[in-house]
Amino acid sequence: MQERPEPTFAPGLSARVELTVTDADTAQAVGSGDVPVLGTPRVLALAEAATVAATATVMPAGMTTVGLRVELDHRAPTPVGRTVRAQARLATVDGRRLLFEVRVTDGEDTVADGRVERVLVDRQRFVERASRGA
User: Fold this and answer.
1) Domain span at residue 53?
2) Is residue 64 annotated as part of the catalytic site, yes or no?
3) Which residues touch 55 (CB under 8 Å, ≥6 apart)?
4) Considering 48, 51, 64, 105, which one is annotated as catalytic?
5) Which residues participate directly in catalysis (predicted)?
6) In-domain check, residue 28
7) Is 84:18 a contact under the CB 8 Å cutoff?
8) How many domains does the chain have?
9) Residue 13 and residue 87: Cα distance in Å, rounded?
10) Who contacts 72 (Cβ-Cβ below 8 Å, separation ≥6)?
11) Enclosing H/E stretch for 120
12) What letter would DSSP give residue 34?
């Protein structure tokens, strides 16, 4: 089996995604609390979406990244109806490991910040392995 060459991702790659908070995004709805504000799992999902978007345009065919580790400080509540923006910037590349710095904002206010580490994998092999339960 021929090994696929590993792509080169350069620190500085970045992307921004946004979300207008709905009732479905609240802590009450996602089961992470009992308050009607943006739930931490949705904040994390938005931050991860920004990391995926940051590498999307340079991702080689057949490859993808998967989440490995997350450090996230959820600092401020966001009510339904507000729009939050997640910015991810690739800070460090260590072989197949990609470390992103992430920040989620509501206007000028920081809602959350932290780091997301992802690892580059062969998509098909990863899915096959997951299907086998390995």
Assistant:
1) 15-132
2) no
3) 9, 13, 65, 90, 98
4) 48
5) 40, 48, 74
6) yes
7) yes
8) 1
9) 11
10) 40, 43, 44, 47, 102, 112, 113, 114, 115, 116
11) strand 109-122
12) S
Better-scored residue on pLDDT, 5 or 35: 35
Query: Catalytic: 117?
Result: no
The tokens 């943006």 sit on which residue?
Answer: 38
Within a domain: 24: yes
Binding residues for substrate: 67, 118
Q: Report, as an integer, the average pLDDT of 87-108.
A: 97
* Whether the Cβ atoms of residue 30 and residue 41 lie closer than 8 Å to each other: yes
Identify the active-site residue in 26, 74, 105, 117: 74
Q: How many CB atoms lie within 10 A of CB 9?
A: 17
Q: What is the DSSP letter of 79?
A: B
* pLDDT(133) > 80: no
Domain harbouring 24, CATH code: 3.10.129.10
In a domain, 5, yes or no: no
| Confidence at residue 81, expressed as pLDDT on a 0 to 100 scale | 98
Closest CA to 114 of 50, 27, 35, 66: 50
Would you say residue 9 lies in a domain? no
Distance CA 18, CA 69 (A): 22
Model pTM score: 0.91
